[in-house]
Every structure is written in structure tokens, then in C-alpha cells.
Amino acid sequence: MPILPIDTGRYGTSEMRMVFEEESRLQRLLDVEASLALAHAEVGDMPLADAKKIAEMASTDFVKVTRVKEIEKEIKHDIVSLVRSLAEVCGSSGAFVHLGATSYDIVDTANALQLKEAINLIENKLINLKKILQKNALKYKKTVMMGRTHGQHALPITLGFKFAVWGYEINRHLERLNDCHKRVIVGKVSGAVGTQAGLGENAQRIQELVMKRLGIHPAKISTQIVQRDRYAELICILGIISASLENFATEIRELQRPEIGEIFEAFEEKKQVGSSTMPHKRNPETCERICGLSRIVRSLTIPSIENIVTWHERDLTQSSTERFIFPETCILTDYLLHLMIEVVSNLRVDKKRMLDNVSLTQGRIMSEAIMMQLTRKGVNRQEAHELLRKLTIKSEIEKRQFKQILMENKFISKKLNENEINKTLNPKNYLGTALKQVEKFLTI
């Protein structure tokens, strides 16, 4: 009976859930057992016919989840249950199943197989999101809007520039994921404490053959387990990705507030309901879901880091937590990316409201531009700053256009004529290299 919202299908994409479904997990474990048998045969440790039989039967078509659970209920060991279930369907060849291996040779190598699939799905969505941000950055390259710091109007930017900032952040996540592959996607066949004693003189060759067949890296050294700093690195990267997505979603939520009203999450006007009691509501529900679920992802970084600590060559503290950590972080991160792709692809932008908001402070947001113009006329920068600070306060108190205040000031009127003031107060003339930075983003 499904309990958690991932199990009920409320959260998660079908392709990522499939990676971590019970039967998929069992198949990855069987894949490792099959590769182990074939490697043993290749170095002469078992007859090739027996290895081929094991490989043939190492499938969920023959080894059923129900049978593995039935045995586990009796013996209280999941991997031995798997081994016995596989051996049962292999006839006499079953005697060679799991030869020289320990449980976590199978578990950690299967982990690598699953995480490889999961990372590929996440990387593909990151690439897709970056492309959409590039498309939007180009579309809104010159769309002027208010840049804000501390929640206050600062200087003008463009919406395209904002998308470029987000896009570079996504690109850094792609770099992080790509870089961690060689450390995270590793398997092992090293036996009970990592010495490979039970695998005989061909031990290192067997490990190489197993990993080559499975398409993953062999651990250079391990104990009974692959060291958990590897997994902690991945989970922390996924946590950082989730934080970025919450950051983007929070910005969209803020800009959707009626007081600002610049960009909006898509709303299906024919059917979508915003509130059970207030018919007018159009809530940024998807962005709020992104913010909420991203906190679950980040919460899982703590147990993943704590899992680095183990007694001697291995204890069982990692096992139970990783049954939650791996599927939840991967499924939710992938789902968050899916949601953000939908949001950013379908944003509604109110360009007029953006320009209206730029004008809210009656031109005072251009005080830095005026200050820089004065310095070019030979005015001391500090003196110009103090003068303009006072003049912006005067404009605000008297609720008058900043241009009027500037032109009334004898000192400024001697330095700048009306044409220069008009040009300097135009937000479109004070975008710096914003457009060039957008264009550079389009090339990465």
C-alpha cells in the first residue's frame, strides 16, 4: 500500500521513479552477480557454461522480488536472499553464484549503476533548463526591469540578464556533476574487508572485468564498502542544485506579488483553481512546491555526510539511511528540475509593469549614474555622493521628480545641462555590460 507521495505518484517523473523501483533495484543487483560470474569464467575460476547459465538467469524474469522477500523474511539478510533466489533458478550452476564476493560488493556496485542512470537523467534536465534560459535570455535581452538589493530598488537591469545569471548557475551544476562522475560512479569487488583475499590470485583482474562489463569505474581501494565521502559529494551537489531551484522559484514568487506584478507562473484559466474559497486567487503553486521539496532534498545532505563515519572496515549504519537518501534525493531533484523547466518555459511577462516599477522612485534610482557623470566633469566622487544623497532625500520627501531637484541645484546645473541630465536619467543608458554578458551566456 503506497504511503509516501513519491509512492503514490504525486511527486517524481516516471523515468526517474523507474530507476529506483524495487524490481529495477533487484535487476541491478542481478546484473552485478552476472558480471561477477562471467569475470570468474574469463580468468578460469569457473566453467564458462556455468557462468553463462548464471548470467542468463540473472533477470527479474526468473528471480522474483516476491521470492527474495520470502527468503529474507526467514533468514533476515537481503543479499543472501538474493543469492539463494538466483542459485535456485540456476540448477547446478547455482553453486558458483556470488563466488568470492561479500554483500556490499554487490550492493555498492549496484548503487553505482543506479546512480549513473539517475545522474544522466538529471544532467539531461539541467541541459534542457539551460537551453530554455538561453532562449529567454535572448528574448528578453533588452527588457529593462528593476534590479533590487535588500528588497529595495537599486539599479536597472534586464530580464534577459537575470535569466543569464540563472543560466550560469545551472552551468556550474553541470560542471559539478560531470566532475564527480569519476568519484561517485564506482564499484568494487574486494571482499569482506577490502583485501580481496577470497577472490584468489586473479582478484584485481576480476574487479576490472566486472566494472568494464558494467561500464563503471573500479574503486582504487575500499574496505567492505565503497567509502561514503563519494556519495556525500553527490548528495551535497543535488542539495545545492535544489537550493538554486528554490532561489529561482522564490524570485518568481516575489515578482508575481500584485505589488510588483512583473512575471507570473502560468495559470490554466479554463480549469485551474487557485483557492477553495477565493475565486480570484492565482497562486504561484508550482514555485511554492519547488521551494518546499527542495528543503527535503537539502535535509538529506546531513545523513549523507554522517554516513562517512563508519566503525573500522564497515558497519551497518549507512544501509538503512541510504534506502531513503538515494531514491529521495534523485527522484526529488529530477522532479524539481522538471517543474522548473515547466515554469520557465511558460512564464508570463508584463513588460509595461516592469517599466512602471522602474519609474516608482521618480528617477532616484539613477543617482549613481548622475554621480558618475559628475566625476567625469571633475567633481570629487565623495562630494558628489554626499550631494546626491541629500538631493534624493529631498526628492522623496517632497515627492517630486528627481530631474526637477537636479535642475534646481545650482552646482549640478553648472556641471550638467538638461540634455545631459535627460540622457543620464534614462535607465536604458545605464545597463553597463548587461547585454554583452547575456550574449556571452548564449555561447556556453
Summarize the biggest pleated sheet. 2 strands, antiparallel
- What proportion strand? under 5%
- Fold-level CATH name of the largest domain: Fumarase C, Chain A, domain 2
> Which structural class matches the secondary elements?
mainly alpha
- The CATH architecture of the largest domain can be named as Up-down Bundle
Shape: elongated
Say how many strands there are.
6
What is the overall pLDDT average?
96
In spatial order, strands of the major sheet run: 1-2
Question: What letter string, H or E per element, gives the SSE order?
Answer: HHHHHHHEEHEHEHEHHHEHHHHHHH
Instruction: Please give the CATH class of the largest domain.
Output: Mainly Alpha
Distance between the termini: 46 Å
CATH superfamily of the largest domain: Fumarase/aspartase (Central domain)
Radius of gyration: 30 Å
Q: How many H/I helical runs?
A: 20
**What's the number of structural domains?**
2
**Poorly predicted runs of 5 or more residues:** none
Helix content: 55-70%
